[in-house]
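Hi! If you just cloned this repository, the fastest way to understand the data is to look at a raw example. We've pasted two of them here, unedited. The first protein comes first, obviously.
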Amino acid sequence: MAAHEDWLLYERYFSPERLAPYLAESNNDNDLAMALYRWDADARAAFLPPFGHLEVAVRNTLDQQMTARQHRLGQHRHWVFDDAHQLGRDGGGPGRNVPPYVEIAAAMRHVLGNQKPLDAAQVISELPFGFWHQLVSKRQNFLWPDLVGGFPFAPNRSALSVRDIFARLRLLRNRIGHHHRVGGGNLAGRYDDILTLAGYIDPDLRDWIDSHSSVTSVISIRPRNDQVKGMVP
Protein backbone atom coordinates (compact mmCIF):
# COMPACT_ATOMS: atom_id res chain seq x y z
CA MET A 1 0.00 0.00 0.00
CA ALA A 2 1.39 3.41 -0.96
CA ALA A 3 2.15 5.91 1.78
CA HIS A 4 -0.56 8.28 0.53
CA GLU A 5 -3.15 5.50 0.58
CA ASP A 6 -2.00 4.56 4.07
CA TRP A 7 -2.55 8.12 5.25
CA LEU A 8 -6.06 8.14 3.80
CA LEU A 9 -6.78 4.95 5.76
CA TYR A 10 -5.45 6.57 8.96
CA GLU A 11 -7.65 9.62 8.44
CA ARG A 12 -10.71 7.53 7.66
CA TYR A 13 -10.51 5.14 10.59
CA PHE A 14 -8.54 7.02 13.24
CA SER A 15 -9.95 10.53 12.48
CA PRO A 16 -8.11 13.76 11.60
CA GLU A 17 -8.72 15.06 15.13
CA ARG A 18 -6.94 12.09 16.69
CA LEU A 19 -4.06 12.38 14.24
CA ALA A 20 -3.62 16.13 14.72
CA PRO A 21 -1.11 15.92 17.63
CA TYR A 22 1.05 13.50 15.65
CA LEU A 23 1.02 15.79 12.63
CA ALA A 24 1.92 18.75 14.82
CA GLU A 25 4.82 16.85 16.34
CA SER A 26 6.06 15.74 12.92
CA ASN A 27 5.73 19.17 11.28
CA ASN A 28 3.04 17.77 8.97
CA ASP A 29 5.19 14.89 7.77
CA ASN A 30 2.64 12.16 7.15
CA ASP A 31 5.19 9.33 7.26
CA LEU A 32 6.54 10.43 10.62
CA ALA A 33 3.02 11.07 11.98
CA MET A 34 1.99 7.52 11.10
CA ALA A 35 5.16 6.11 12.63
CA LEU A 36 4.55 8.09 15.82
CA TYR A 37 0.95 6.90 15.92
CA ARG A 38 2.03 3.27 15.78
CA TRP A 39 4.84 3.86 18.28
CA ASP A 40 2.41 5.45 20.72
CA ALA A 41 0.26 2.30 20.59
CA ASP A 42 3.39 0.22 21.25
CA ALA A 43 4.27 2.46 24.20
CA ARG A 44 0.78 2.06 25.69
CA ALA A 45 1.03 -1.71 25.27
CA ALA A 46 4.49 -1.81 26.86
CA PHE A 47 3.18 -0.11 29.99
CA LEU A 48 0.41 -2.65 30.56
CA PRO A 49 2.50 -5.48 32.08
CA PRO A 50 4.39 -3.34 34.64
CA PHE A 51 1.17 -1.48 35.45
CA GLY A 52 -0.62 -4.78 35.93
CA HIS A 53 2.07 -6.21 38.20
CA LEU A 54 2.15 -3.03 40.28
CA GLU A 55 -1.64 -2.77 40.53
CA VAL A 56 -2.03 -6.36 41.75
CA ALA A 57 0.77 -5.85 44.28
CA VAL A 58 -0.77 -2.58 45.50
CA ARG A 59 -4.24 -4.00 45.98
CA ASN A 60 -2.93 -7.08 47.82
CA THR A 61 -0.70 -4.93 50.00
CA LEU A 62 -3.44 -2.46 50.89
CA ASP A 63 -5.95 -5.27 51.40
CA GLN A 64 -3.60 -6.82 53.95
CA GLN A 65 -3.25 -3.51 55.77
CA MET A 66 -6.99 -2.86 55.76
CA THR A 67 -7.67 -6.40 56.98
CA ALA A 68 -5.24 -5.94 59.86
CA ARG A 69 -7.04 -2.69 60.67
CA GLN A 70 -10.38 -4.51 60.79
CA HIS A 71 -9.00 -7.03 63.24
CA ARG A 72 -7.52 -4.30 65.40
CA LEU A 73 -10.90 -2.54 65.55
CA GLY A 74 -12.70 -5.78 66.36
CA GLN A 75 -14.70 -5.79 63.12
CA HIS A 76 -15.26 -9.28 61.83
CA ARG A 77 -16.56 -8.98 58.26
CA HIS A 78 -14.14 -8.06 55.50
CA TRP A 79 -13.48 -4.34 55.17
CA VAL A 80 -14.95 -4.10 51.64
CA PHE A 81 -18.44 -4.46 53.11
CA ASP A 82 -17.84 -1.32 55.20
CA ASP A 83 -20.13 -2.36 58.04
CA ALA A 84 -18.76 0.51 60.13
CA HIS A 85 -19.65 3.01 57.37
CA GLN A 86 -16.16 4.51 57.32
CA LEU A 87 -15.56 4.30 53.59
CA GLY A 88 -18.70 6.03 52.36
CA ARG A 89 -21.34 3.32 52.50
CA ASP A 90 -24.70 5.12 52.84
CA GLY A 91 -22.66 8.29 53.30
CA GLY A 92 -25.30 10.37 51.52
CA GLY A 93 -28.17 8.61 53.26
CA PRO A 94 -29.56 5.06 53.08
CA GLY A 95 -28.58 3.52 49.75
CA ARG A 96 -26.68 6.63 48.69
CA ASN A 97 -22.99 5.81 48.74
CA VAL A 98 -20.14 8.30 48.47
CA PRO A 99 -16.49 7.79 47.46
CA PRO A 100 -14.60 5.63 47.81
CA TYR A 101 -17.41 3.15 48.57
CA VAL A 102 -19.12 3.93 45.27
CA GLU A 103 -16.31 2.02 43.58
CA ILE A 104 -16.88 -0.95 45.90
CA ALA A 105 -20.61 -0.89 45.19
CA ALA A 106 -19.94 -0.83 41.45
CA ALA A 107 -17.53 -3.75 41.82
CA MET A 108 -20.18 -5.70 43.75
CA ARG A 109 -22.73 -5.11 41.00
CA HIS A 110 -20.22 -6.31 38.44
CA VAL A 111 -19.51 -9.47 40.45
CA LEU A 112 -23.21 -10.23 40.80
CA GLY A 113 -23.79 -9.46 37.13
CA ASN A 114 -21.20 -12.08 36.26
CA GLN A 115 -23.04 -14.54 38.54
CA LYS A 116 -20.03 -14.98 40.80
CA PRO A 117 -20.10 -15.31 44.59
CA LEU A 118 -20.09 -11.97 46.36
CA ASP A 119 -16.97 -12.58 48.40
CA ALA A 120 -14.20 -10.14 49.22
CA ALA A 121 -11.67 -11.62 46.80
CA GLN A 122 -14.06 -11.25 43.87
CA VAL A 123 -14.91 -7.67 44.82
CA ILE A 124 -11.27 -6.67 45.24
CA SER A 125 -10.38 -8.12 41.84
CA GLU A 126 -12.92 -5.74 40.25
CA LEU A 127 -11.76 -2.56 41.98
CA PRO A 128 -10.00 -0.08 39.65
CA PHE A 129 -6.63 1.54 40.26
CA GLY A 130 -8.43 4.77 41.10
CA PHE A 131 -9.97 3.15 44.17
CA TRP A 132 -6.57 2.46 45.70
CA HIS A 133 -5.57 6.03 44.94
CA GLN A 134 -8.63 7.18 46.86
CA LEU A 135 -7.64 5.06 49.85
CA VAL A 136 -4.36 6.95 50.20
CA SER A 137 -5.89 10.33 49.35
CA LYS A 138 -6.06 13.28 51.71
CA ARG A 139 -9.80 12.72 52.11
CA GLN A 140 -9.12 9.29 53.63
CA ASN A 141 -6.14 10.46 55.66
CA PHE A 142 -7.53 8.74 58.77
CA LEU A 143 -6.59 5.42 57.14
CA TRP A 144 -2.97 6.31 56.51
CA PRO A 145 -1.57 5.24 59.92
CA ASP A 146 -2.82 1.74 59.09
CA LEU A 147 -1.84 1.80 55.41
CA VAL A 148 1.69 3.13 55.78
CA GLY A 149 2.90 -0.33 56.81
CA GLY A 150 2.24 -1.49 53.27
CA PHE A 151 5.15 0.66 52.07
CA PRO A 152 7.95 -0.34 54.45
CA PHE A 153 10.70 0.81 52.08
CA ALA A 154 9.34 4.33 51.47
CA PRO A 155 11.79 7.10 52.42
CA ASN A 156 9.48 8.29 55.21
CA ARG A 157 6.04 7.69 56.70
CA SER A 158 4.39 10.64 54.97
CA ALA A 159 1.35 9.92 52.80
CA LEU A 160 2.72 12.43 50.30
CA SER A 161 5.48 9.94 49.48
CA VAL A 162 2.95 7.71 47.74
CA ARG A 163 -0.02 10.01 47.11
CA ASP A 164 1.57 12.07 44.35
CA ILE A 165 2.88 8.95 42.62
CA PHE A 166 -0.58 7.38 42.71
CA ALA A 167 -2.07 10.53 41.19
CA ARG A 168 0.39 10.64 38.29
CA LEU A 169 0.03 6.94 37.57
CA ARG A 170 -3.75 7.13 37.72
CA LEU A 171 -3.76 9.78 34.98
CA LEU A 172 -1.52 7.68 32.76
CA ARG A 173 -3.52 4.52 33.52
CA ASN A 174 -6.70 6.29 32.41
CA ARG A 175 -5.09 7.56 29.20
CA ILE A 176 -3.90 4.06 28.35
CA GLY A 177 -7.30 2.59 29.18
CA HIS A 178 -9.03 5.02 26.81
CA HIS A 179 -6.41 4.63 24.05
CA HIS A 180 -5.35 8.26 24.34
CA ARG A 181 -1.94 9.50 23.21
CA VAL A 182 0.72 9.08 25.88
CA GLY A 183 3.84 10.07 23.96
CA GLY A 184 3.33 13.73 24.71
CA GLY A 185 4.04 13.13 28.40
CA ASN A 186 7.06 12.14 30.45
CA LEU A 187 6.95 8.40 29.91
CA ALA A 188 10.37 7.80 31.43
CA GLY A 189 9.21 9.66 34.53
CA ARG A 190 6.02 7.63 34.76
CA TYR A 191 7.92 4.38 34.39
CA ASP A 192 10.18 5.54 37.19
CA ASP A 193 7.03 6.17 39.24
CA ILE A 194 5.96 2.55 38.71
CA LEU A 195 9.35 1.27 39.83
CA THR A 196 9.52 3.70 42.74
CA LEU A 197 6.13 2.72 44.14
CA ALA A 198 6.93 -0.96 43.67
CA GLY A 199 10.21 -0.37 45.48
CA TYR A 200 8.38 1.21 48.41
CA ILE A 201 6.55 -2.10 48.77
CA ASP A 202 9.62 -4.28 48.19
CA PRO A 203 12.85 -3.56 46.28
CA ASP A 204 12.78 -7.14 44.98
CA LEU A 205 9.36 -6.45 43.46
CA ARG A 206 10.72 -3.32 41.78
CA ASP A 207 13.65 -5.23 40.29
CA TRP A 208 11.41 -8.07 39.13
CA ILE A 209 9.01 -5.70 37.36
CA ASP A 210 11.89 -3.90 35.68
CA SER A 211 13.52 -7.15 34.55
CA HIS A 212 10.30 -8.22 32.82
CA SER A 213 9.50 -4.87 31.20
CA SER A 214 10.03 -3.57 27.67
CA VAL A 215 9.12 0.05 28.49
CA THR A 216 12.66 1.41 28.44
CA SER A 217 13.49 -0.20 25.09
CA VAL A 218 10.23 1.00 23.52
CA ILE A 219 10.83 4.56 24.74
CA SER A 220 14.31 4.44 23.23
CA ILE A 221 13.04 3.71 19.71
CA ARG A 222 10.62 6.62 19.42
CA PRO A 223 10.56 7.45 15.69
CA ARG A 224 12.48 10.43 14.36
CA ASN A 225 12.26 12.09 11.00
CA ASP A 226 15.57 10.68 9.77
CA GLN A 227 14.41 7.15 10.59
CA VAL A 228 11.12 7.13 8.70
CA LYS A 229 11.74 9.33 5.67
CA GLY A 230 10.82 7.36 2.61
CA MET A 231 9.59 4.34 4.52
CA VAL A 232 6.19 2.84 3.73
CA PRO A 233 4.33 1.94 6.99
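Ok, and the second one:
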Amino acid sequence: MLALVLDDAEMNNLLIVAALQPIPGCLPRDFTVPAKALAYAEAHASEIGVVITDYEMPDMNGVDFIRAVRRIPALAGVPVVMLTSYDQRSLRREALEAGATDFLAKPADPVEIRARVTNLLALTAALRDNAAQLAKEVAAAVALVEEREREIISTLMRAAENRDSDTGDHIARVSAYVGLVAEALGMGPDACRMLVLASTMHDVGKIAIPDAILLKPGPLTPEERREMERHAERGQRILGGSASPVMRLAAEIAASHHERWDGAGYPYGLSGEGIPLSGRIVAVADVFDALTTERPYKQAWPRERARDHLVTSAGAHFDPRVVDAFLSRWQEVEAAMSLQLPHRHEDAAA
Protein backbone atom coordinates (compact mmCIF):
# COMPACT_ATOMS: atom_id res chain seq x y z
CA MET A 1 0.00 0.00 0.00
CA LEU A 2 1.36 3.43 -0.91
CA ALA A 3 2.28 6.12 1.61
CA LEU A 4 2.32 9.55 0.01
CA VAL A 5 4.80 11.91 1.70
CA LEU A 6 4.92 15.65 0.99
CA ASP A 7 7.47 18.09 2.43
CA ASP A 8 9.27 20.83 0.54
CA ALA A 9 12.46 20.01 2.48
CA GLU A 10 14.16 17.03 0.82
CA MET A 11 15.96 16.05 4.04
CA ASN A 12 12.65 15.74 5.94
CA ASN A 13 11.31 13.47 3.19
CA LEU A 14 14.38 11.27 3.39
CA LEU A 15 13.95 10.86 7.16
CA ILE A 16 10.23 10.00 6.87
CA VAL A 17 10.78 7.56 3.99
CA ALA A 18 13.55 5.85 5.98
CA ALA A 19 11.18 5.50 8.92
CA LEU A 20 8.41 4.01 6.73
CA GLN A 21 10.46 1.52 4.71
CA PRO A 22 10.59 -1.19 7.45
CA ILE A 23 6.76 -1.35 7.54
CA PRO A 24 5.65 -4.56 5.72
CA GLY A 25 3.74 -3.81 2.53
CA CYS A 26 4.31 -0.03 2.78
CA LEU A 27 5.71 1.72 -0.32
CA PRO A 28 6.63 5.36 0.40
CA ARG A 29 6.40 7.89 -2.43
CA ASP A 30 7.78 11.33 -1.55
CA PHE A 31 7.33 14.75 -3.18
CA THR A 32 8.57 18.27 -2.55
CA VAL A 33 6.03 20.03 -4.84
CA PRO A 34 2.32 19.95 -3.82
CA ALA A 35 1.07 20.03 -7.42
CA LYS A 36 3.11 16.97 -8.34
CA ALA A 37 1.96 15.17 -5.21
CA LEU A 38 -1.69 15.89 -6.09
CA ALA A 39 -1.25 14.66 -9.65
CA TYR A 40 0.25 11.43 -8.33
CA ALA A 41 -2.56 11.10 -5.77
CA GLU A 42 -5.24 11.38 -8.47
CA ALA A 43 -3.49 8.80 -10.65
CA HIS A 44 -2.92 6.27 -7.82
CA ALA A 45 -5.79 7.06 -5.45
CA SER A 46 -6.96 3.47 -5.07
CA GLU A 47 -3.45 2.37 -4.01
CA ILE A 48 -2.77 5.06 -1.41
CA GLY A 49 -3.26 4.01 2.20
CA VAL A 50 -2.01 7.10 4.05
CA VAL A 51 -0.98 10.68 3.24
CA ILE A 52 1.65 12.60 5.25
CA THR A 53 2.05 16.31 4.60
CA ASP A 54 3.97 19.25 6.00
CA TYR A 55 2.22 22.60 6.56
CA GLU A 56 4.62 25.33 5.43
CA MET A 57 5.26 24.92 1.69
CA PRO A 58 5.45 27.30 -1.29
CA ASP A 59 2.37 27.76 -3.52
CA MET A 60 0.09 25.56 -1.36
CA ASN A 61 0.17 25.04 2.41
CA GLY A 62 -0.64 21.75 4.11
CA VAL A 63 -4.24 22.66 4.95
CA ASP A 64 -5.00 23.54 1.33
CA PHE A 65 -3.29 20.33 0.25
CA ILE A 66 -5.52 18.29 2.60
CA ARG A 67 -8.63 19.97 1.18
CA ALA A 68 -7.48 19.12 -2.34
CA VAL A 69 -6.81 15.51 -1.35
CA ARG A 70 -10.28 15.18 0.18
CA ARG A 71 -11.83 16.28 -3.10
CA ILE A 72 -10.45 13.13 -4.74
CA PRO A 73 -13.32 10.62 -4.24
CA ALA A 74 -11.13 7.57 -3.60
CA LEU A 75 -9.15 9.50 -0.96
CA ALA A 76 -12.12 10.96 0.91
CA GLY A 77 -11.68 8.50 3.77
CA VAL A 78 -7.93 7.78 3.62
CA PRO A 79 -6.01 8.85 6.77
CA VAL A 80 -4.10 12.11 6.38
CA VAL A 81 -1.33 13.03 8.83
CA MET A 82 -0.01 16.58 9.18
CA LEU A 83 3.50 17.31 10.39
CA THR A 84 3.53 20.31 12.76
CA SER A 85 5.98 21.84 15.16
CA TYR A 86 4.92 22.43 18.75
CA ASP A 87 4.35 26.16 18.14
CA GLN A 88 1.83 25.38 15.37
CA ARG A 89 -0.91 24.01 17.63
CA SER A 90 -3.22 26.80 16.47
CA LEU A 91 -3.19 25.21 13.03
CA ARG A 92 -4.47 21.88 14.22
CA ARG A 93 -8.11 22.92 14.43
CA GLU A 94 -7.98 24.32 10.90
CA ALA A 95 -6.31 21.13 9.69
CA LEU A 96 -8.93 18.95 11.41
CA GLU A 97 -11.71 20.95 9.77
CA ALA A 98 -9.97 20.45 6.41
CA GLY A 99 -9.91 16.66 6.92
CA ALA A 100 -6.71 15.83 8.83
CA THR A 101 -6.83 12.53 10.70
CA ASP A 102 -3.75 12.76 12.90
CA PHE A 103 -0.69 14.88 13.66
CA LEU A 104 3.03 14.24 14.09
CA ALA A 105 5.23 16.71 15.88
CA LYS A 106 8.41 17.95 14.22
CA PRO A 107 11.12 16.83 14.45
CA ALA A 108 9.40 13.49 13.84
CA ASP A 109 10.43 10.44 15.85
CA PRO A 110 11.00 7.46 13.46
CA VAL A 111 9.55 5.00 15.99
CA GLU A 112 6.40 7.10 16.41
CA ILE A 113 6.08 7.50 12.65
CA ARG A 114 6.26 3.74 12.11
CA ALA A 115 3.77 2.99 14.88
CA ARG A 116 1.19 5.53 13.77
CA VAL A 117 1.47 4.81 10.05
CA THR A 118 1.30 1.04 10.68
CA ASN A 119 -1.97 1.52 12.57
CA LEU A 120 -3.39 3.89 9.93
CA LEU A 121 -2.52 1.53 7.08
CA ALA A 122 -4.25 -1.30 8.94
CA LEU A 123 -7.30 0.94 9.35
CA THR A 124 -7.35 1.74 5.62
CA ALA A 125 -7.05 -1.95 4.74
CA ALA A 126 -9.92 -2.85 7.08
CA LEU A 127 -12.16 -0.09 5.71
CA ARG A 128 -11.49 -1.16 2.13
CA ASP A 129 -12.16 -4.79 2.96
CA ASN A 130 -15.45 -3.78 4.58
CA ALA A 131 -16.32 -1.62 1.58
CA ALA A 132 -15.58 -4.48 -0.81
CA GLN A 133 -17.72 -6.86 1.24
CA LEU A 134 -20.55 -4.32 1.39
CA ALA A 135 -20.32 -3.83 -2.37
CA LYS A 136 -20.65 -7.59 -2.86
CA GLU A 137 -23.69 -7.72 -0.58
CA VAL A 138 -25.30 -4.77 -2.37
CA ALA A 139 -24.60 -6.38 -5.75
CA ALA A 140 -26.17 -9.64 -4.55
CA ALA A 141 -29.24 -7.79 -3.25
CA VAL A 142 -29.60 -5.85 -6.52
CA ALA A 143 -29.26 -9.08 -8.51
CA LEU A 144 -32.01 -10.67 -6.41
CA VAL A 145 -34.32 -7.71 -6.97
CA GLU A 146 -33.61 -7.76 -10.70
CA GLU A 147 -34.32 -11.49 -10.83
CA ARG A 148 -37.66 -10.94 -9.08
CA GLU A 149 -38.46 -8.17 -11.55
CA ARG A 150 -37.66 -10.46 -14.48
CA GLU A 151 -39.95 -13.12 -12.99
CA ILE A 152 -42.78 -10.59 -12.72
CA ILE A 153 -42.19 -9.41 -16.27
CA SER A 154 -42.05 -12.98 -17.55
CA THR A 155 -45.36 -13.74 -15.85
CA LEU A 156 -47.00 -10.70 -17.41
CA MET A 157 -45.63 -11.59 -20.83
CA ARG A 158 -46.88 -15.18 -20.60
CA ALA A 159 -50.31 -13.82 -19.77
CA ALA A 160 -50.16 -11.62 -22.87
CA GLU A 161 -48.89 -14.47 -25.06
CA ASN A 162 -51.85 -16.60 -24.03
CA ARG A 163 -54.09 -13.95 -25.59
CA ASP A 164 -52.19 -13.51 -28.85
CA SER A 165 -49.77 -16.00 -30.37
CA ASP A 166 -47.84 -13.21 -32.12
CA THR A 167 -47.19 -11.20 -28.94
CA GLY A 168 -44.00 -12.98 -27.91
CA ASP A 169 -42.30 -12.46 -31.27
CA HIS A 170 -43.49 -8.84 -31.39
CA ILE A 171 -42.05 -8.15 -27.93
CA ALA A 172 -38.71 -9.72 -28.82
CA ARG A 173 -38.35 -7.70 -32.02
CA VAL A 174 -39.49 -4.41 -30.52
CA SER A 175 -37.11 -4.75 -27.58
CA ALA A 176 -34.25 -5.49 -30.00
CA TYR A 177 -35.04 -2.37 -32.02
CA VAL A 178 -35.34 -0.31 -28.82
CA GLY A 179 -31.87 -1.41 -27.73
CA LEU A 180 -30.37 -0.40 -31.09
CA VAL A 181 -32.01 3.05 -30.98
CA ALA A 182 -31.00 3.65 -27.35
CA GLU A 183 -27.38 2.84 -28.19
CA ALA A 184 -27.47 5.10 -31.26
CA LEU A 185 -28.79 7.94 -29.09
CA GLY A 186 -25.79 7.55 -26.79
CA MET A 187 -27.48 6.04 -23.77
CA GLY A 188 -25.21 4.19 -21.35
CA PRO A 189 -25.25 0.39 -20.97
CA ASP A 190 -27.35 0.41 -17.78
CA ALA A 191 -29.93 2.80 -19.24
CA CYS A 192 -30.12 0.70 -22.42
CA ARG A 193 -30.67 -2.52 -20.47
CA MET A 194 -33.41 -0.96 -18.35
CA LEU A 195 -35.16 0.51 -21.38
CA VAL A 196 -35.02 -2.79 -23.28
CA LEU A 197 -36.46 -4.67 -20.31
CA ALA A 198 -39.18 -2.09 -19.66
CA SER A 199 -40.15 -1.98 -23.34
CA THR A 200 -41.19 -5.64 -23.26
CA MET A 201 -44.26 -4.55 -21.28
CA HIS A 202 -45.42 -1.79 -23.61
CA ASP A 203 -48.60 -3.63 -24.64
CA VAL A 204 -49.41 -5.38 -21.36
CA GLY A 205 -52.69 -3.44 -21.20
CA LYS A 206 -53.98 -5.55 -24.10
CA ILE A 207 -54.64 -8.43 -21.72
CA ALA A 208 -57.81 -6.51 -20.81
CA ILE A 209 -58.99 -6.22 -24.43
CA PRO A 210 -61.74 -8.70 -25.46
CA ASP A 211 -60.66 -11.41 -27.93
CA ALA A 212 -63.34 -10.31 -30.37
CA ILE A 213 -61.50 -7.00 -30.75
CA LEU A 214 -57.90 -8.07 -30.17
CA LEU A 215 -58.06 -10.92 -32.72
CA LYS A 216 -60.58 -9.45 -35.13
CA PRO A 217 -59.59 -10.38 -38.73
CA GLY A 218 -60.64 -7.06 -40.20
CA PRO A 219 -60.91 -3.31 -39.60
CA LEU A 220 -62.19 -2.18 -36.20
CA THR A 221 -65.30 -0.09 -35.81
CA PRO A 222 -64.89 3.35 -34.19
CA GLU A 223 -66.20 1.94 -30.90
CA GLU A 224 -63.85 -1.04 -31.12
CA ARG A 225 -60.95 1.29 -31.93
CA ARG A 226 -61.68 3.35 -28.80
CA GLU A 227 -61.72 0.17 -26.73
CA MET A 228 -58.41 -0.95 -28.23
CA GLU A 229 -56.83 2.42 -27.49
CA ARG A 230 -57.67 2.04 -23.82
CA HIS A 231 -54.85 -0.51 -23.54
CA ALA A 232 -52.35 2.33 -23.06
CA GLU A 233 -54.03 3.65 -19.90
CA ARG A 234 -54.75 0.13 -18.68
CA GLY A 235 -51.10 -0.80 -19.09
CA GLN A 236 -50.10 2.28 -17.12
CA ARG A 237 -52.49 1.28 -14.30
CA ILE A 238 -51.27 -2.32 -14.27
CA LEU A 239 -47.62 -1.30 -14.05
CA GLY A 240 -47.96 1.90 -12.06
CA GLY A 241 -47.51 2.37 -8.33
CA SER A 242 -44.37 0.23 -8.09
CA ALA A 243 -41.18 1.38 -6.34
CA SER A 244 -39.15 -0.49 -8.95
CA PRO A 245 -37.39 1.83 -11.45
CA VAL A 246 -37.91 -0.63 -14.30
CA MET A 247 -41.62 -0.99 -13.54
CA ARG A 248 -42.03 2.79 -13.34
CA LEU A 249 -40.29 3.11 -16.70
CA ALA A 250 -42.51 0.36 -18.12
CA ALA A 251 -45.61 2.25 -16.92
CA GLU A 252 -44.29 5.40 -18.61
CA ILE A 253 -43.77 3.51 -21.86
CA ALA A 254 -47.19 1.83 -21.73
CA ALA A 255 -48.84 5.23 -21.35
CA SER A 256 -46.81 7.13 -23.96
CA HIS A 257 -45.84 4.83 -26.84
CA HIS A 258 -48.98 5.76 -28.83
CA GLU A 259 -48.51 9.51 -28.44
CA ARG A 260 -47.50 11.36 -31.59
CA TRP A 261 -44.89 14.05 -32.12
CA ASP A 262 -47.58 16.35 -33.57
CA GLY A 263 -49.93 15.84 -30.60
CA ALA A 264 -52.52 13.75 -32.47
CA GLY A 265 -51.85 10.54 -30.52
CA TYR A 266 -53.42 8.98 -27.44
CA PRO A 267 -54.24 8.68 -24.59
CA TYR A 268 -53.18 12.18 -23.44
CA GLY A 269 -52.47 14.07 -26.67
CA LEU A 270 -48.89 14.85 -25.69
CA SER A 271 -46.60 16.37 -28.30
CA GLY A 272 -42.93 16.90 -29.08
CA GLU A 273 -40.52 16.56 -26.18
CA GLY A 274 -43.49 16.55 -23.83
CA ILE A 275 -43.64 12.84 -24.71
CA PRO A 276 -41.15 10.85 -22.61
CA LEU A 277 -38.12 9.80 -24.65
CA SER A 278 -38.81 6.17 -23.73
CA GLY A 279 -42.25 6.40 -25.36
CA ARG A 280 -40.84 8.11 -28.46
CA ILE A 281 -38.29 5.33 -28.91
CA VAL A 282 -40.80 2.52 -28.45
CA ALA A 283 -43.25 4.25 -30.81
CA VAL A 284 -40.82 3.94 -33.73
CA ALA A 285 -39.88 0.34 -32.89
CA ASP A 286 -43.51 -0.69 -32.33
CA VAL A 287 -44.89 0.83 -35.53
CA PHE A 288 -42.04 -0.51 -37.66
CA ASP A 289 -42.64 -4.03 -36.39
CA ALA A 290 -46.41 -3.69 -36.80
CA LEU A 291 -45.94 -2.61 -40.42
CA THR A 292 -43.45 -5.35 -41.33
CA THR A 293 -45.34 -8.31 -39.83
CA GLU A 294 -48.55 -9.97 -40.89
CA ARG A 295 -51.61 -9.37 -38.72
CA PRO A 296 -55.11 -10.92 -38.84
CA TYR A 297 -56.32 -7.79 -40.64
CA LYS A 298 -53.39 -7.00 -42.98
CA GLN A 299 -50.42 -8.25 -44.98
CA ALA A 300 -46.85 -7.43 -43.97
CA TRP A 301 -45.25 -4.43 -45.63
CA PRO A 302 -41.86 -4.79 -47.35
CA ARG A 303 -39.16 -3.43 -45.07
CA GLU A 304 -38.18 -0.66 -47.50
CA ARG A 305 -41.77 0.58 -47.63
CA ALA A 306 -41.88 0.60 -43.83
CA ARG A 307 -38.57 2.46 -43.76
CA ASP A 308 -39.95 5.10 -46.14
CA HIS A 309 -42.99 5.46 -43.89
CA LEU A 310 -40.77 6.26 -40.90
CA VAL A 311 -38.94 8.89 -42.94
CA THR A 312 -42.10 10.60 -44.21
CA SER A 313 -43.71 10.46 -40.75
CA ALA A 314 -40.72 11.97 -38.92
CA GLY A 315 -41.84 15.30 -37.46
CA ALA A 316 -45.51 14.25 -37.58
CA HIS A 317 -45.95 10.84 -35.95
CA PHE A 318 -42.38 10.32 -34.79
CA ASP A 319 -39.53 12.21 -33.15
CA PRO A 320 -37.15 12.93 -36.08
CA ARG A 321 -34.10 12.33 -33.90
CA VAL A 322 -35.36 8.86 -32.94
CA VAL A 323 -36.09 8.00 -36.58
CA ASP A 324 -32.56 9.08 -37.54
CA ALA A 325 -31.14 6.89 -34.76
CA PHE A 326 -33.24 3.92 -35.92
CA LEU A 327 -32.12 4.32 -39.53
CA SER A 328 -28.48 4.73 -38.50
CA ARG A 329 -28.60 1.11 -37.29
CA TRP A 330 -30.44 -0.20 -40.35
CA GLN A 331 -28.22 -3.22 -40.98
CA GLU A 332 -28.70 -4.40 -37.40
CA VAL A 333 -32.45 -3.75 -37.68
CA GLU A 334 -32.61 -6.01 -40.74
CA ALA A 335 -30.59 -8.67 -38.92
CA ALA A 336 -32.93 -8.51 -35.94
CA MET A 337 -35.93 -8.98 -38.23
CA SER A 338 -34.56 -12.15 -39.79
CA LEU A 339 -33.00 -13.62 -36.65
CA GLN A 340 -36.17 -13.36 -34.62
CA LEU A 341 -38.53 -14.86 -37.15
CA PRO A 342 -36.99 -18.26 -38.02
CA HIS A 343 -40.26 -20.19 -37.63
CA ARG A 344 -41.97 -17.89 -40.14
CA HIS A 345 -39.31 -18.60 -42.73
CA GLU A 346 -39.73 -22.32 -42.11
CA ASP A 347 -43.50 -22.01 -42.52
CA ALA A 348 -43.05 -20.12 -45.78
CA ALA A 349 -40.67 -22.76 -47.12
CA ALA A 350 -43.12 -25.52 -46.24
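That's it. A detail worth noticing about the second one: Confidence is low (pLDDT under 50) at residues 340-350.
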